Amino acid sequence: MTNENVEEKKTKYLLEIDEDHARLLIEALDFYSRVHMGQLEVITEQHIHSFDDPEDCHRFRQTVLLLKDDLGIHQNAHWGIRSPKVIEGAKVAFDIQQIIRHRLAWDRHPEGGHTVDFGSLLRCSQSKSLPKIYGEKHDNQS
Question: What are the angstrom distances between the C-alpha of 67 and each of 14, 46, 62, 73, 134?
């Protein structure tokens, strides 16, 4: 057996969170992946209420749009999550976000549904392993 066939044994961790924490984690992963896709507008959306003066808000938004321009991205465009310009970490974050959303959807509606959250993982990353999530209400994993 060559070294190429031996997969490195990685330490695994168990994190116990409630639904509110899971939703916050989804938001954070979504934010991270969107920023790396060039959707820098999410930064302004997060801070829009931080400004008392609408002119300051407008100036902040324009600064963010200049950053997009510096990256070569049109102000109304972004890269797709599968683009080679998007870093692997953002793709892994997107995959993890999907896994958590999937689990929450099935826990809230065990009968199923028609939104993307109920479907199979549309894997974007090249990661050899992705997290598994188990719901307290159901023994099956996502």
Answer: 38, 16, 9, 9, 40
